[in-house]
Amino acid sequence: MFAVRVSVVCFLLTITSGSVEEENPEFWRKSAQNTLRSALSRKINTNVAKNIVLFLGDGMGVTTITAARILKGQLQKHSGEETVMNMDTFPNVGLAKVYSVDFQIPDSAATATAYLCGVKTNLNTVGVSAAARNGVCRSQKGNEVTSILRWAKDAGKSVGIVTTTRVQHATPAASFAHSASRTWYSDADLPASAATEGCVDIATQLLHNIDIDVIIGGGRKYMTPKGFPDPEYPSDASAQGQRRDGRNLIQDWIQMKEGKVARYVWNKTDFDAVDPEKTDYLMALFEPADLRFDVERDHSMDPSISETTDKAIQILKKNPKGFFLLVEGGRIDQGHHSSRASAALHEAVALDEAVSRGLELTDEEETLTIVTADHSHAFTFNGYPFRGNSILGKSPIFASDFLPYTTLMYGNGPGHKITNNKRPDIRKVDTADKDYIQQSAVPLDSETHGGEDVAVFARGPMAHLFQGVYEQNYIPHAMAYAACIGENQQHCAITAKPDENPDTSTDPGNSAQNMPDYTFTILMISTLMRILLH
Ligand SMILES: *[C@@H]1O[C@H](CO)[C@@H](O)[C@H](O)[C@H]1NC(C)=O
Ligand SMILES: [Zn+2]
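Above: inputs. Below: predicted complex with 2-acetamido-2-deoxy-beta-D-glucopyranose.
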C-alpha cells in the first residue's frame, strides 16, 4: 500500500505543473467557441469528386487512433492528449459496421471486398461475393465482384495502390483480384485442385485484371521464378522467388507497358530518381514480402508511406480526368497481432503523416479523401494514467496483485505469461521499447481482430454522405456516387438540367448549365464586331 501512495503523490506533483492555462475556464470556452465557429462555417461540398484518395489503416480501430494521437503529440514533446491528427481535421465522421457474411469479427479480405467492391462477403475471400466459399476455387466462377478501382479506370481515371505490405496482400488484392483465398499470392500457393480448376494467383491477376498505373509496396518474391535471387538479400533463401510457372512478372509487366514510360524500382535511390512528370507507370517493390515496420525501416533503402503516397499522387494527378488511389497503412494490424503496441502505433502515426501529404497535394474542392480502417483489434486503453503519462507507459496505481500494468494491453495474444500464479513484474521493464509485448488476458500466439465499428473520416466533395452509422460496404457506393463513376450516375445527368434541380440554380458551380445561351450571345456579338471592323 505504501508503494501505491508514494507513486500517486509523485505523479500528482508532476502533473500540476504543466496545465496552468487549462485551469482557467476561459481556455476551454475559447477552444469550444473556435470549434463551434469552424463547424458553423462549414459548407456542404456538392462538387463532383475528380479524385478519390482512400487511406486505409489496417487494424486501425478507434483505440488505436486515440493512442496514436497521443504518441504523435508525445513524440513532439507535448502532453499528447490534446494533439490533433490530420485525420481529426476531417469535417465528417461516421461509423462502419464491419462484420462479414459469415463471421461476427471479420478479416482484412472480407472487409476490403466490402469497402472496395461494395459487397459484403466471407472471411478470407477477395473480390468475390459470399456465394463463393473460402478456399474453394470452383465456387469462385460467376461470383466475382468488381471494385471502385475498376470503376474509376473504366471512367478514364488513373488508378493506384500504395501499401506497406506485399502488394498481393488482402487489402490491395480486393481492389484488383478475385480469389476464393487471400493466401494465393503466387502460383506456388495455389492448391493443386485450384490450379486444375483454373484459378489464378493474385500476383498474376495484378498484371492482367486492371491496367493499374501505380503499384507500390512489397512482394517481389511472388513475382519471380522459384530460386530467383532477391536483389537486396541475394543470399537469403526465404527471400528468393517463389513462382512455379517460371514467369518473371516484373519483366512481363515492363514488356506489357512497352511504348509507355514504365519504371520498376526496388530501392529508395531509384525510387527518388523517378520523375513523376515523365512517368506513366510505376511499380515499386521494396521488400521480398511485407515492408519493415516504420520503427525498423532502413531509411536509405525504403521510403516512408508519406514518400510513396507523394510519388503516387504526383504521377496519377497528371490525368485530366482525375484518379483513384488506395493508400494502405497495412502493418498497424501486424504490430497488434504481435502485441507490439509501439510498432503498431508508430505505423498509425506514419499513416497520419501520409494523410497530411495527400491533403497538401490535392484540392479539397475536387478531391474526396477518406480515412478509415477495415476492422479493430482486441486492444485496450485502460487504467487511470495521469495527464501526459507516456502512452506506452504504466499506470501509476498497481493492480490488486501489487504489480503495475501498462495503459495499453490486449484482450488476447502472445503477452499472456503467468509464472507461479503471477503476471510478469514490469517495474524495471521499458514498456515503450519497440519490441515490448503488452500483456493480455488470454494466451494466443497471434492477437485477434476486434469487432466494434470503425471510424470513417471524410473530406471533400460529398463528404457529408459519410455521416452516420452504416454497413462497411456502403463506403465505395458513396465514393462512386461522389465521383460520378460506377453504377449510380443518374444524379450526374440531373445536375446538368437546371429546371429539374431549382435548389442549385443559383450555385455558381452550376453556371455551365446556362452556357449555350451565353455562348450564342457571345458568338453573335463577336460576329457583329468582326463585320463592323472589316
Ligand atoms: C538500386 O537498384 C538499382 C537497380 O537494380 C541498382 O543498380 C542499385 O545498385 C540499387 N541501389 C542500392 C543502394 O542498392
Ligand atoms: Zn489482421
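Residues 341-361 form the longest helix (21 residues).
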